[in-house]
């Protein structure tokens, strides 16, 4: 697998565009289209939030059919908690995009991100979609990447090529964060393209499994958004023999490539978590099963006390064991061990004499690995998170006004 | 019910003391004893954290017997994650206190609060307990109240008298916060005394029910501590006819008094939440049952995005509905309504035109009521919480070092 240039349009026969439609107060890019010149298999996963936004409902219908041509996205307004008007607007976005692209409405996914509870300025949105549709190009990936951002401080994008069924396929993705990040079956917004040929059912399974190992393993603030969505379009332009099921010999290679993209983008979302100064990999091993390992790791990742301690570079490790203790996972306090970086802190439930200088050096780094060994099983899970800083409070105390 | 002076020793035949034993780096009071001159019924509830501290295990045994004479407490060190040494030290604290007080070891509860993962400096602790035991007095409630504090900025105490069974009884309590507050069956530390005569089984039920309506309805940061404990001693000195069961005619009057103390102290803990600038009462009504109302209210109370928005006085109400949406409670997005203060924001799932000036005034107040009407039932729950401020990050980034 080799990293390549070109972002979301690196796979063959994809184009994209991002334009400034005037939805964002900042005046930056806020409408994007990602387009496949030929029909593509589609799969998507969505937020489990009961207050799911209008575009989530509309895109769920499209993804259910298994074939799509385009994704239309706006930032600056989430079109969530907007009732019937929100549904009307989301459907209108689809129709305007479909008309401009000359494709069927049933082939266009729609996504929104931004402030909740405000209806879309549809005149601006419509003009933006039409302009984006007229500007589609291979180079347009840069604009599209910008147009899905909200409080993100950098765009998140990757592209790879990989051998597949005797030929070479490409896979690429873009994602945005940066707050309300605690995905449950999907993240904020992530779009993945590939020119691999794969049937919708196999694609759906691959996406589901990849998301469970990537976006569902991250948390910035424990808030599961109303608008989370991860979608993949696979247009088959690579010319590989169709991967028609998960038991096809080329499925593992495709899944490995998809997982690489999903994990990379999920980690990028955490690295750009609102106000983040640290990237924390919380691994819980020695657990009876994956679910309880994840449950314990997620409790640590969500703990404001743990997150502020890492911000302060304060090795207050008791808070980590405290969070494991209330996570609901089975714990034997006499068997638990804790390592930060390569410094063993707790062994078999007891604080040990450790090298304080070494620990201080690790706490000062940007990337820190925390490993809890439950000592009662063989399962393991890693959750990625960031710290809680003054900047997180500032960003979120001042976002609306 | 009438508020009275005198704190934890206002009930008859209770004494207390708090001394500076040198456990806290600050040099402030850090060892307390609360003592009943006559045997008292005892009940206590404890943290559900699987990493429960040594004193929790020891006090659970004492409380199980139903009779006690004293509580010995230290701050500055939680005696949690301290293994066998921690158990030995907790039992030693009990023995030292029992010997100094001339009571049986089986009659002394022990509690600790402070940093996790460090063993107690037992020489200092022992000297402190002996000095406290020698200084017990009715006036000692002030020292005791100080000695249980950690990052608290003010002591939390109340005392009331109330008519009971033809006589007058007294009930009083002290509590400490101020971080790692998301109690589950108890809060950090809370001690309640009463001179009412009540049997251990009825006392246990009353405490359990009162805690479920008070300490289990608050959250500062979502972290359930390793050391949470709420204990009550009832020594019967008021001379009322013994309340021998929950069906006794005087039980409701006693329960009401206990609930008043518990709710007052729970709210005080929230008001003094680390870095708190706001006191938020999150009410969810119109829910199918209490459990789902509490589930939804607690999700709002724990959301870092909601808490930072209130800190910023930013009426970003979409975050409140988002939290309700991911809480796991049953939600019908078309029926949900939201009121902040007396300003209706969302009606039947739709943002309504509201008085922005009025909302801005409410957001500027210290005490703010948030009411979510689910519109699908008749049950209601109120959770109390505080905002997330720069100060919370500062306090918790710098606590350890």
What does this protein look like?
Two copies of one chain form a homodimer. In chain A, 33% of the residues lie in helices and 28% in strands. Chain A has two domains: 270 residues, L-amino peptidase D-ALA esterase/amidase (4-Layer Sandwich), CATH 3.60.70.12; 119 residues, ArgJ beta chain, C-terminal domain (Ubiquitin-like (UB roll)). With 401 residues, the first copy, chain A, is of the alpha+beta class. Chain A starts with a strand and ends with a helix. Chain A contains eleven helices and 16 strands. In chain A, helix 1 crosses helix 2, helix 5 crosses helix 6 and helix 7 packs across helix 9. The first copy, chain A, is globular. In chain A, strands 1, 2, 3, 4, 5, 6, 7, 8 and 10 form a nine-stranded mixed beta sheet that branches.
How are the SSEs placed, and which strands pair?
2 copies of one chain form a homodimer.
Chain A: E1 2-3, E2 14-19, E3 31-46, H1 54-65, E4 67-77, H2 83-101, E5 108-115, H3 122-134, H4 141-147, E6 156-164, E7 167-176, E8 189-194, H5 200-212, E9 218-219, E10 229-234, H6 251-271, E11 279-287, H7 290-302, H8 304-311, H9 318-326, E12 337-340, E13 343-347, E14 350-351, H10 356-363, E15 367-373, E16 379-386, H11 390-397
Parallel strand pairs in A: 4-5, 8-10, 9-16, 11-15
Antiparallel strand pairs in A: 1-6, 2-3, 3-4, 3-10, 6-7, 7-8, 11-16, 12-13, 12-15, 13-14
Helix pairs in contact in A: 1-2, 2-3, 5-6, 7-9
């Amino acid at each position: 697998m080799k990293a390549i240039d070109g972002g979301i349009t690196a796979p063959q026969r994809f184009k994209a565009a991002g334009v400034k439609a005037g939805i964002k107060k900042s005046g930056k890019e806020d409408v994007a289209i990602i387009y496949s010149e030929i029909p593509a298999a589609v799969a998507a996963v969505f937020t489990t939030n009961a207050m799911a936004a209008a575009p989530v409902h509309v895109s769920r219908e499209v993804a259910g059919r298994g074939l799509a041509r385009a994704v239309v996205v706006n930032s600056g307004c989430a079109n969530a908690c907007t009732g019937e008007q929100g549904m009307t607007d989301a459907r209108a976005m689809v129709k305007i995009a479909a008309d401009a692209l000359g494709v069927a409405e049933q082939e266009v996914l729609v996504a929104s991100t931004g402030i909740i509870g405000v209806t879309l300025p549809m005149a601006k949105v419509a003009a933006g979609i039409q302009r984006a549709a007229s500007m589609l190009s291979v180079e347009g990936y840069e604009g599209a990447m910008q147009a899905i951002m909200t409080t993100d401080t950098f765009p998140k994008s990757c592209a790879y090529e990989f051998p597949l069924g005797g030929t070479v396929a490409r896979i690429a993705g873009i994602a945005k964060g940066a707050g309300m990040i605690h995905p449950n079956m999907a993240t904020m917004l992530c779009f993945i393209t590939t020119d691999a040929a794969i049937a919708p059912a196999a694609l759906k399974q691959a996406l589901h499994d990849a998301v469970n190992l990537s976006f569902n393993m991250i948390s910035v603030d424990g808030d599961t958004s109303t608008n989370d969505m991860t979608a993949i379009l696979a247009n088959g332009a690579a010319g590989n023999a169709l991967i028609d099921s998960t038991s096809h010999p080329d499925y593992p290679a495709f899944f490995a490539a998809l997982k690489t993209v999903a994990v990379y983008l999920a980690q990028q979302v955490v690295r750009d978590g609102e106000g983040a100064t640290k990237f924390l990999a919380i691994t819980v091993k020695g657990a009876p099963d994956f679910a309880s390992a994840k449950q314990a790791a997620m409790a640590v990742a969500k703990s404001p006390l743990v997150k502020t301690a890492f911000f302060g570079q304060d090795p207050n490790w008791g808070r980590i064991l405290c969070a494991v203790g209330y996570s609901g996972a089975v714990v034997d306090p006499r068997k638990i061990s804790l390592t930060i970086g390569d410094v063993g802190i707790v062994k078999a439930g007891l604080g040990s004499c450790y090298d304080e200088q070494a620990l201080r050096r690790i706490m000062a780094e940007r990337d820190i690995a925390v490993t809890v060994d439950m000592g009662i099983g063989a399962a393991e899970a890693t959750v990625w998170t960031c710290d809680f800083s003054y900047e997180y409070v500032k960003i979120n105390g001042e976002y609306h006004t």
